[in-house]
Structures are given as structure tokens and as C-alpha cells.
């Protein structure tokens, strides 16, 4: 994948999280490392974690990503 496509995928993920209708998803952080997009953060429920996963999957397309999202009850 070219650098332009990697930057575009990263921008799409950051935009998808930043414009989410769930405020807690807007607090997640996405960074590029090791040819993957890493998403970090904490959400209060497993439902929101699942929403984050779906949001990221839609935005990432065929890009690989790794989640480090904790659920803090």
C-alpha cells in the first residue's frame, strides 16, 4: 500500500471516530505504527467497544488495525 493510501486510511479512521454520535468514541486515539493502525482508549461498556470496532472496520477498508480498547465498568 502506498504512503498516500495509508495516510488516507488513517485520516478516515480518525474522522470516523471524531464525528461519531457516541461521545466516548470521540475520545479514542488512532496512531499508525508497524504497518498497522493502532486504536487506544477506554469505553464504559462492551456495547461501545463493539460500536468502535464496527466504526473502525468501515473506515479502515482493507487496512490492518489493532485495538487496545479497555472496558472500564
Largest sheet: 3 strands, mixed
- How do the strands line up in the largest sheet? 1-2-3
At the first level of CATH, the class is Alpha Beta
Shape: globular
**What is the helix/strand order?**
HEEHE
Task: Describe the structure in your own words.
The protein has two helices and three strands, in the order αββαβ. A three-stranded mixed beta sheet has the order 1-2-3, with helices on one face. α2 (46-60) links the parallel β2 and β3. It is α+β, with helices and mostly antiparallel strands and 73 residues long. The protein is globular, with a radius of gyration of 12 Å. The longest helix is centred in the N-terminal third of the chain and has 16 residues, at 3-18. The chain has a single domain, classed as Histidine-containing Protein, Chain: A. The chain has helices spanning 3-18, 46-60; strands spanning 29-33, 36-43, 65-71. α1 runs antiparallel to α2. The model has no long low-confidence stretch (mean pLDDT 88). It comes from Limnoglobus roseus. This is BON domain-containing protein.
